[in-house]
Amino acid sequence: MHEILFNFISKYITITEEEKKAIISLGVFKSEKKGSILLKEGQFSNESFFVLKGCLRSYYIIKGEEKTTSFHTEMTAINALNQTSEKNIACVENSIVLVSNPELEIKMFEKFPKFESLCRILSEEVLNKQQIDFDLFKILSPEERYLNILKTKPDLIQRVPQHQLASFIGVKPQSLSRIRSRITAKEKTSIR
Amino acid sequence: MHEILFNFISKYITITEEEKKAIISLGVFKSEKKGSILLKEGQFSNESFFVLKGCLRSYYIIKGEEKTTSFHTEMTAINALNQTSEKNIACVENSIVLVSNPELEIKMFEKFPKFESLCRILSEEVLNKQQIDFDLFKILSPEERYLNILKTKPDLIQRVPQHQLASFIGVKPQSLSRIRSRITAKEKTSIR
């Protein structure tokens, strides 16, 4: 599992055997079962969660109903820094997660400054991507949001429960079923 | 104007006179008139825009209509890195903007490594904040979004045209008028 992380890091910076050992020695890798909750509404949090394997979901409970706001699969991160969390974070699948916090990072940066470069580059990349996702969510209709997932992240549709996916694109499960039927019907028409 | 930036930076890192001169010498400060366009849909961009004074707006043109997705006031940034832009960025007010790009930043980091720390910290902060904003947008109704702006950023309501604000919270201008009337009516009732 460590190798997956080191391969990912190698895309951004060179990493020596010493540095790999330093990362492993931190003991920040956690194996979590499907359904387990990493963060609960009302808890104080100063952590970031980087997904090595599996899928996390963030959701809010609004008037007794779960509202899913994001999914995080391999090589993506979700932060809950310096806040009493209003959201919940749970595992949609059995997951392996790197759990970090600012104090730990600062210690690492002092010893290995290039990890600060890595975190800077990754944060900027994620920020850029997240800004585009945020914009897309605002300008697309629910059907277009679903089509966008089909195009950019088709595996997600198989990996998460349909009611959570419906909530994520901002509709009721019945509406998601209708959206899927419409898309299937269009595909059939275009094949004929 | 430089002093505003240096005061802001001082909250995160110590900054020497030499470093201040280095920043000024980059020539990255641009004065832009209200209405001027910093980035147009279809242009390739690898820049980030940090607002020192004024207000920027990002918007998309969907079926001939402008759809506002974000406003950026003092000490906030908007990135358009390594992409053929699908959005437009324009000045809502006369603005002073620090326009940067990755190549320029790398040169600065080589000379003054602590600027990399600054960019890392700022990116993580913005990412954290943006994730919360994204979640809030998804879980709030348009009226709640407006109330949230009233609470967290009341000056924005005076600073930007109402039709842009309506688009930003996801409604037609007439609906925003109705939302404002309802809120005023509620306030009157609660005073009585």
Briefly say what this structure is.
Two copies of one chain form a homodimer. Chain A is an alpha+beta fold.
Characteristic terms for this protein:
homodimer; 192 residues; alpha+beta; Jelly Rolls; 2 domains; four-stranded antiparallel sheet; 8 helices
Instruction: State the helicity of chain A in percent bands.
Output: 40-55%
From the helix content, strand content and strand pairing of chain A, which structural class follows?
A: alpha+beta
Distance from N terminus to C terminus of chain A (CA atoms, Å) equals 46 Å
| Low-confidence sequence ranges of chain A | none
SSE string of chain A: HHEEEEEEEEHHHHHH
| Cα-atom radius of gyration of chain A | 19 Å
Biggest interface, CB < 8 A: A-B, 36 and 36 residues
| Outline of chain A | globular
Using the coordinates shown, work out and report the CATH topology of the largest domain in chain A.
Jelly Rolls
Top CATH class of the largest domain in chain A: Mainly Beta
Q: What is the name of the CATH architecture of the largest domain in chain A?
A: Sandwich
Name the CATH superfamily assignment of the largest domain in chain A: Jelly Rolls
Number of domains of chain A: 2
| Beta-strand content estimate of chain A | 25-35%
Averaged pLDDT of chain A, please?
93
In which order are the strands of the major sheet of chain A placed?
Answer: 1-8-3-6
